[in-house]
């Protein structure tokens, strides 16, 4: 048996002159009886101390990551023409 709960939030802020800041945060908790190196639960090959009591081994997963914070900064290049903003359009002729 495995269980995963998470809270996710994302904030995007447009600053002046094409500058934009984005930040995302995730709080998560993953629980299972047994985990393998690929991060999936392996109930069929239980290796715990008591094969008749799965709840005795129920704990945080090996791959459990409680906090994850990701941020990004982007800047839009100045220019009024769509051809200037997208070089693929210019190279492919529209």
List keywords for this structure.
elongated, 94 residues, mainly beta, 2 helices, 4-stranded antiparallel beta sheet, 40% strand
Taking the alpha carbons of the first and last residues, their distance comes to 53 Å
Helix vs. strand class: mainly beta
How much of the residues is beta strand, in percent? 35-45%
Specify the helix fraction band. 10-25%
Shape: elongated
Number of helices: 2
Mean pLDDT: 78
Q: Give the total of domains.
A: 1
Radius of gyration, taken over Cα atoms and rounded to an integer in Å = 23 Å
- Number of separate strands: 4
Return the string of H and E elements: EEEEHH
For the sheet with most strands, the description reads: 4 strands, antiparallel
Query: Poorly predicted ranges (pLDDT <50, ≥5 residues)?
Result: none
Short description:
This protein is mostly beta strands and 94 residues long.
Structure description:
- With 94 residues, this protein is mainly beta.
- It has one domain.
- It is built from 2 helices and 4 strands; from the N terminus they run ββββαα.
- Strands 1, 2, 3 and 4 form a 4-stranded antiparallel beta sheet that branches.
- A hairpin with a 4-residue loop joins β1 (2-14) and β2 (19-32).
- The chain is elongated and about 70 Å long.
- The model has no long low-confidence stretch (mean pLDDT 78).
